Amino acid sequence: MGRKVRSRWKSLLFLLILATVLVAEVGRVLDQHRWAALSLVMGLVVFFIARHFVGRRLDAFEGAQKTALQGWKWRRVRYEVLRKYGRRCMLCGTTQGSMHVDHIKPRSKYPNLTYDANNLQVLCESCNLGKSNTFEDDFRASASGGSKGRR
Q1: Which of 6, 39, 49, 104 could potentially form a cystine with 24 if both were Cys, beta carbons 3.0 to 4.6 Å apart?
Q2: What confidence tens digit (pLDDT) does each residue in 56-73 have?
Q3: Are 138 and 132 in contact, with CB atoms under 8 Å apart?
Q4: What is the torsional sign of CA 11, 14, 20, 22?
Q5: Quick check: pTM over 0.90?
């Protein structure tokens, strides 16, 4: 869906939400049940339009990468990496807090390496968020006593 079309749908959705709120307020002020029923129907229409036109497009566009990390395949590879290297950050050495299994070569640039255990390392949340998808530093060598290297 092009930007102009998406923008038009967002504008239409915004207007429908605004109209729904307006109808609900009129019904509340007038204390009439038919206004409340109309507001409910309009709310359902807004919900289904949002779900059908916006939700699906955004899922396909933005959420596709997230689903790759929610399946059994990722969980299995992640467990194998944690089992192999342990629950210790390979950069700072901490064992406290949340541990992330990091993609050395980022998934955004190398999607074919998503499930490759040779492309994974264990980092604490802070180190992983600092590394982001900007760097491709491999800290596995430094964690085992060698020098820091790049892959």
Answers
A1: 39
A2: 544 444 455 566 777 889
A3: no
A4: negative
A5: no
